[in-house]
Amino acid sequence: MKLYYSPGACSLSPHIALHEAGLAFEPVLASTKSHKLQDGTDYYTINPLGYVPLLELDDGTLLREGPAIVQYIADLAPTKNLAPAAGTLQRYRLQEWLTFIGTEIHKGFSPLFNPATPDEYKTIARDKLASRLKWLDGQLEGKQYLMGEHFGVADGYLFTVTNWAKPTGVDISGLPNLLAYRERVAARPGVQAAMKAEGLAK
Ligand SMILES: N[C@@H](CCC(=O)N[C@@H](CS)C(=O)NCC(=O)O)C(=O)O
After folding, report:
1. pTM surpassing 0.90?
2. Per-residue pLDDT tens for 57-72?
3. Domains of the chain with bracketed CATH
4. In principle, which of 84, 155, 168, 181 could form an S-S bond with 90, CB 3.0–4.6 Å?
């Protein structure tokens, strides 16, 4: 398998999932700025949408969209408990989290990275994110991970997108459960390995 990624982008989430699953894969850097691979290939010829993550299976099949990709990875390594079994209520609970993270948090941050976003809108986006993150902080009270005791693919995704709080000026210093959770996730060897591979940790 190949994972098309850009350092620190949302593709860190499947990158973490692949390390946590212990699967063999080739990371392929696809810059979100130049939309080129390191060998100069135009990334749009691989993903016409131009964004990461993208997973290329061994038979050449392409799978897009982070929440789908991480569930596919989790299902390849069922003994790692990265996702509850398909068809169970807990699996829908995971999808509930992945959708929340994707639509309310991930895409809440996106306008803050866009230099064309007017400052007034950035203020609105930061306020909306702050309210979502405050609710999330309450949800993490007394929990190790989003789904309870086990680390799962939603945790890799939430960790990835909350990494963006600092560079975008979203203040999470008053959210003790989220801060402790982020430290717990960051300390995992699979997370460290993905961070190192992307040049985000030593
Ligand atoms: N809907 C996609 C969105 C992915 C996405 O927003 N990727 C960003 C990085 S976090 C990207 O590659 N942006 C560059 C671009 O859109 O050209 C998913 O959830 O996987």
Report:
1. yes
2. 999 999 999 999 999 9
3. 2-81+190-197 (3.40.30.10), 89-188 (1.20.1050.10)
4. 84
